[in-house]
Amino acid sequence: MAISEDTIERIRLSNSIDSVIREYLPDLKRTGRNWKTCCPFHSEKTPSFIVSPEKGIFKCFSCNAAGDVFKFVMLLDNISWIEAVKKLAKKTNIEIQETKQDIIKVSEKTKLFDILESSAVFYNKCLLESTGAKKAREYIEKRGINRETVNEFKIGFAPKGQFLQWTLKKDYKNDDLLKAGLITKTERGIFFEYMSERVVFPIFDVQGRVVAFGGRTIIDHEIKYLNTPETAVYSKSSNLYGLFQTLSELRKERKIIVLEGYMDVVVPQQFGITGVVATLGTAFTQNHAKLVSRYSDSVTLLFDSDDAGRAAAQRSLEILVGDGIECRVSALPEHVDADEYLNQYGKESFLKLLEDSSKSAIDFMIERVLGGLSSDGIKNSPEIKAKSVSALLNFAARSSNSIIQREWIRDIAQHVNVDEEAVWREFKKRQRLKLRGYLQYGKNSAEQIVKVKKDKKILMSLEENLLNLILNNRDYIEKTDSSYFEDARCRKIFELTVSGLDTVGILNTLSEEDKNWFLELILNTVEYNDVGEAFGIILKDIDTIRLERKRRQLEKEILLMSEGKKEKDKKMFDEYKKLTALLKGSGK
């Protein structure tokens, strides 16, 4: 949907970010020019969530959640950007003009949601009331699922041939059913439903809307589990089964357990185990990681104990670690599903199993890499040690936290029985080679270097100090120019500021990586006794550093002249003397 920039700005200005956030977080307190409280997106005791009414932004300096008033409402209410805009517009009685195309697009999605919701009700009613659902009810009972859980998850059953008859009564068109992913069409033009003769598990998005279905056959079928295909309202790599049902508990606990199947989620949640979710017939993805990090501070992966389960756990770990998410791995006994274990041994035993079998990410990887080395002779082979260390360092490199990397390297050294400093040197050598290749072969070397240089240090460079001062005291924009900024990011922000963009406008032009850097920079407000004096000192220091760099370059040239390796140049020598005198006068 296209909303004019003027309308969006009116909505933004009518909803001051501090007043909107205070409605959600009443503990928000003023601290100078900003407001501060504990972050709502992760557990913390020391407040690190900053709101700047002046700039119209928020940022948590612990979990890096950041953005404008629309982004905050999106995250807290689990809604899309357009829905957040509409919500805030309604709150302030601002009318949004929708084009005919926008109305049609929204109408089509609304139609799909209506069809999917109605279908879930139909399947659920069939399970509970249909005479043809006897086997399905027996299956549900055998798996230990009670009536309350059936209704909470809207579990259903699809009797053969009845769904299409029901859709005729509802006056649903086949084209709409195809778009909703409920039926498919053969080459001969015959329609049939995906879920026929299956126990049906509706898949909900985080807003509680039915977006798709999963089905488990109760007849002798070679495909045991089947999901409806991706549609305009459903992407399997961006949804987790069971997430909606456990959202309220997640906001308190902020701990997620990732399993593999529908029953692995339904039964644990029935037993009161919170935060249990499952992927939907696909491997764990970056989008899953983003979804997980929004609602939890730690993740436990609970996969089968076979090779396939361990491989799935490793792939998931690699993604989660790369996103900076704390994660552990637990294991079920071989050939036992989570629901079977719970029904046989109960909740307390299940939670104890989780705890007792729990391994940190690096311990799991060490065991996985070294598990195949049975004899001490093989383990002590230098070649095998080097190969093992190499595999484990590849995993350690996925974390961007240097403290975690150092601790993992200590664990690797101890388990492989190798000197820790040797392992650390190997790791640093790999990082240098990776960096060298990144700088040398990047398509846009200037941008690549900036990305590599990015570093979460608290101290700012001189250029960052200058930019910080200008952004917080915009009267000084006219007293400088872009030539003072050699850092590509700083120059870009300065030029966007000169063009008239405000903080939120600048934010919306940046990549996710640069957004974090920019928000940390602008919210790191430096208080000066005399802003004008500080401004002059920073400019002078930048000039001095550049003059010193120029003087050193000239010095190298003059040394070559004195050694007869280069023809003498009086102008260059005079410039060198002039710069030397100038720098002495500056106190350098």
Automatic annotation (TrEMBL):
<dbReference type="InterPro" id="IPR030846">
    <property type="entry name" value="DnaG_bac"/>
</dbReference>
<dbReference type="InterPro" id="IPR006295">
    <property type="entry name" value="DNA_primase_DnaG"/>
</dbReference>
<keyword id="KW-0548">Nucleotidyltransferase</keyword>
<keyword id="KW-0460">Magnesium</keyword>
<dbReference type="InterPro" id="IPR036977">
    <property type="entry name" value="DNA_primase_Znf_CHC2"/>
</dbReference>
<comment type="function">
    <text>RNA polymerase that catalyzes the synthesis of short RNA molecules used as primers for DNA polymerase during DNA replication.</text>
</comment>
<keyword id="KW-0235">DNA replication</keyword>
<comment type="similarity">
    <text>Belongs to the DnaG primase family.</text>
</comment>
<dbReference type="InterPro" id="IPR006171">
    <property type="entry name" value="TOPRIM_dom"/>
</dbReference>
<keyword id="KW-0863">Zinc-finger</keyword>
<dbReference type="GO" id="GO:1990077">
    <property type="term" value="C:primosome complex"/>
</dbReference>
<dbReference type="InterPro" id="IPR013264">
    <property type="entry name" value="DNAG_N"/>
</dbReference>
<dbReference type="Pfam" id="PF08275">
    <property type="entry name" value="DNAG_N"/>
</dbReference>
<dbReference type="GO" id="GO:0000428">
    <property type="term" value="C:DNA-directed RNA polymerase complex"/>
</dbReference>
<keyword id="KW-0238">DNA-binding</keyword>
<dbReference type="GO" id="GO:0008270">
    <property type="term" value="F:zinc ion binding"/>
</dbReference>
<dbReference type="GO" id="GO:0005737">
    <property type="term" value="C:cytoplasm"/>
</dbReference>
<keyword id="KW-0808">Transferase</keyword>
<dbReference type="GO" id="GO:0003899">
    <property type="term" value="F:DNA-directed RNA polymerase activity"/>
</dbReference>
<dbReference type="InterPro" id="IPR034151">
    <property type="entry name" value="TOPRIM_DnaG_bac"/>
</dbReference>
<keyword id="KW-0240">DNA-directed RNA polymerase</keyword>
<keyword id="KW-0862">Zinc</keyword>
<dbReference type="Pfam" id="PF13155">
    <property type="entry name" value="Toprim_2"/>
</dbReference>
<dbReference type="GO" id="GO:0003677">
    <property type="term" value="F:DNA binding"/>
</dbReference>
<dbReference type="GO" id="GO:0006269">
    <property type="term" value="P:DNA replication, synthesis of primer"/>
</dbReference>
<feature type="domain" description="Toprim">
    <location>
        <begin position="254"/>
        <end position="333"/>
    </location>
</feature>
<dbReference type="Pfam" id="PF01807">
    <property type="entry name" value="Zn_ribbon_DnaG"/>
</dbReference>
<dbReference type="InterPro" id="IPR037068">
    <property type="entry name" value="DNA_primase_core_N_sf"/>
</dbReference>
<keyword id="KW-0804">Transcription</keyword>
<feature type="coiled-coil region">
    <location>
        <begin position="82"/>
        <end position="109"/>
    </location>
</feature>
<comment type="subunit">
    <text>Monomer. Interacts with DnaB.</text>
</comment>
<dbReference type="InterPro" id="IPR002694">
    <property type="entry name" value="Znf_CHC2"/>
</dbReference>
<dbReference type="InterPro" id="IPR050219">
    <property type="entry name" value="DnaG_primase"/>
</dbReference>
<keyword id="KW-0175">Coiled coil</keyword>
<keyword id="KW-0479">Metal-binding</keyword>
<protein>
    <recommendedName>
        <fullName>DNA primase</fullName>
        <ecNumber>2.7.7.101</ecNumber>
    </recommendedName>
</protein>
<keyword id="KW-0639">Primosome</keyword>
<feature type="zinc finger region" description="CHC2-type">
    <location>
        <begin position="39"/>
        <end position="63"/>
    </location>
</feature>
